[in-house]
Amino acid sequence: MSTTDRITAGASPTTGCPVDHGRAPAYPFAAPEALDLGPRYKELRAEEPLSRITLPYGGEAWLAVRHADVRTVLADPRFSRAAVVGADVPRARPEIDTQAASILNMDPPEHTRLRKLVARAFTARRVERLRPRAEEITAELLAGMRAAGAPADLMEHLAVPLPVTIICELLGVPVADRDVFRAGADAALSTSSRSPQERLQAGQDMIAYMAGLVARRRAEPTEDLLGALVLARDSEDRLTEAELIGLGIGILVAGHETTMNHIGNFTYALLTGPGAADRLRADPDGVPAAVEELLRHTPLGAGAGFVRIATEDVELGGVTVRAGEGVIVAIHSANRDDAVFDDADALRLDRAVNPHIGFGHGPHHCLGAQLARMELQVAMGALTREFPDLALATPPEDVAWKSGGFVRGPETLMLTW
Q1: Looking at the 3D structure of the chain, how many domains does it have?
Q2: Segments forming the whole domain that contains residue 113
Q3: What is the pLDDT of residues 278-324, one digit of tens each?
Q4: Residues 31-86: pLDDT tens digits?
Q5: Which CATH number characterizes residue 285's domain?
Q6: Where are the alpha helices (DSSP H) in 92-195?
Q7: What is the mean pLDDT of the chain?
Q8: How far apart are the first and last CA of the chain?
Q9: What is the model's pTM?
Q10: For strand 314-316 and strand 79-80, is the pairing parallel, antiparallel, or unpaired?
């Protein structure tokens, strides 16, 4: 019996017998409310750092909630992402993941090979060269928001167009095609807000769209990132055609989705946290530290992350994870671990020591972390500087939040000044 067979059957790979851990609670524990983190994570960190949970599909998995355990799962090669491909693993939606060419579903050395092809575009030095362009775009967008008059939707005027424009210019994608890939991103990150058929169609549409862009690069070579990837495929044979298209889609979606949602999330957090926006306005040099604290304190995921499969027995969090069992990590819980962060539940914008893992850890650490940091710094700095009287235009409880997906963020965030 193969490891995949054991995963599918829910059996112990060492004995071949069904694994019985008793009745595990359903996960996520509750629907997310705004940016609140439910109390269950704090209880688990104190009492049961590795616990059994039941996902909507695929059965049970382990949930890691402490900072140290989460880092271990994300970095230890014995926890595999590649093992999920084609397997009936614990997951949030009914489709079984068959995307072997996706960088998200690869382990080293295949993952390392693809990552190296694009890593140079996202180094801190190269990202800093993009800061003046990000500041220029932000200034134009905020001027447009001011001209539109209050109340204005931050998502429409800043949160969406800023990261979309930057990643389009970097990758070499027409900004005018925004509606096409935004629809694909929404579907890719949905759990219950889209049907499996809608997700399948959106995925096929994205593949066709990216394949069209690749064909254009072959006909008319360019010096943007997509042009470089096409060159690596055609002249150097460093990736397959499926990997090329998958990598292009991944960069395009991930390159704007996180930043887009967090511009909305961070603004909401600053405007609802007592005195938070005023503290940031009074200390503009403190914006980088404030962004790091917001990354730590503000949950992005509606639940935990992708499942990883143990390829051998691993001791973790005081228990033995058996080969073939799945583990998911709650990064938002790890970032509130009192063993690592003083006063972990408090938003302290001047926090000096901040080893958060908001961008993940290990081989799959977010490739665009430096780009997202820069964009968030520019957006938060300009917003608090240019609008000293900025406030929510509605009571906090009336803000409409996304639902039925993997990530949190406002649907709209109406502001006044």
Answers
A1: 1
A2: 3-416
A3: 999 999 999 999 999 999 999 999 887 789 999 999 999 999 999 99
A4: 888 999 989 999 999 999 999 999 999 999 999 999 999 999 999 999 999 999 99
A5: 1.10.630.10
A6: 110-119, 124-148, 154, 161-171, 178-188
A7: 92
A8: 64
A9: 0.91
A10: unpaired
User: How would you classify the pairing of strands 326-329 and 60-64?
Assistant: parallel
Q: By the 8 A CB rule, do 363 and 247 touch?
A: no
DSSP string across 186-233: HHHTBSSSS-HHHHHHHHHHHHHHHHHHHHHHHHS--SSHHHHHHHHH
The pLDDT of residue 5 is 41
Average pLDDT over residues 353-364: 96
414-416, strands of its sheet edge to edge: 152-153, 414-416, 391-392
Q: How many beta carbons lie within 10 A of that of residue 112, not counting itself?
A: 12
Report the distance separating Cα 109 and Cα 368, nearest Å: 20
Annotate 227-245 with b (16+ C-beta within 10 A) or e (fewer): bbbbbbbeeeebbeeebbb
- Three-state DSSP at 357 gives coil
Structure tokens at 110: 């295949």
**Non-local CB neighbours of 226 within 8 Å, separated by 6+ positions:** 171, 172, 173, 213, 214, 217, 248
